[in-house]
Amino acid sequence: MSNTRHMVLQASLTAVALATTPLAGQRPRHQQTLGDTLLTIFDSVSAIHASHPDTGLLRRLHPAADTLVYIEGDRIEAFTGDSLFRRVVALHRPVRTMTQEFTERHARVFDTTTAFLSATERVRWVDATGPHEWHGLLTLLVTRRGDRWFIRGYRG
User: Fold this and answer.
1) Which domains does the chain have, with CATH numbers?
2) pTM value?
3) What is the pLDDT of residues 127-141, one digit of tens each?
């Protein structure tokens, strides 16, 4: 496993562990406000995953050379933003309609540069084979660089 992939995976697993640990007392107000702001990332993810993906948002959340980790069940994959971009565009070609909704959104802010986000996700789409639906929990590990936030890890 490459060093970058190991570090991101370790960070995402640490985030999962910390996010499920209850805090003693209330979060500081600035963290709560930041968490509320970060939950809008789910709105951006929804905009990306439409019949015709918003590739501008995709590039903003996943810069071309940056690595991100995707975990699903026992499968762990590392992508660059560029390879994810190509994959999303290719997967959306046969899609006729698509909607993605997020409910029960939660943010756990660790510091001013790292947060863990989770939401219940429901995706409905229609392609040449007919209608489909998927639902489950999506978790995101996000980090800040300068004044922008980037998704570093997915678990879905």
Assistant:
1) 3-19+33-155 (3.10.450.50)
2) 0.74
3) 999 999 999 999 999
